[in-house]
Amino acid sequence: MGHDRDRVISISLSEAEWQAFVARQPRPVDWVRARILDEVARGSLAASPEPEQRNSQFTRHNLQS
After folding, report:
1. pTM of the entire structure?
2. SS (H, E, C) the chain
3. Are 9 and 32 in contact (CB under 8 A)?
4. How far is CA 52 from CA 40, 56, 58, in A?
5. Who's near 57: CB < 8 A, 6+ residues apart?
6. How does pLDDT run across 2-20, given as a tens digit for each residue?
7. What are the C-alpha distances in Å from 23 to residues 17, 18, 28, 29, 34?
8. CA quadruple 37, 38, 41, 42: dihedral positive or negative?
9. d(CA 57, CA 49)
10. Higher local confidence (pLDDT), 13 or 46
């Protein structure tokens, strides 16, 4: 059995918000999936520091300010 899992995202929207969104994006699931895949692609192109390194850099910056 593989380790791959499907992930599900649930977002609570009012009916008015949903209707406004669907009016602009008639295929909302495809739109959200495309945005996520865009982020994944951008993340793999730009190597970012590990979360611990980002947090320590943020802390050092704030302490120097």
Report:
1. 0.57
2. CCCCCCCCCCCCCCHHHHHHHHHHCCCHHHHHHHHHHHHHHHHHHCCCCCHHHHHHHHHHHHHHC
3. yes
4. 20, 6, 10
5. 49
6. 788 898 999 999 999 999 9
7. 10, 8, 10, 13, 18
8. negative
9. 10
10. 13
Residue tagged 């209707």 (tokens): 19
Name the pLDDT band for 53 (thresholds 50, 70, 90).
low
Residue with tokens 């495309």: 34
The whole-number pLDDT of residue 65 equals 44
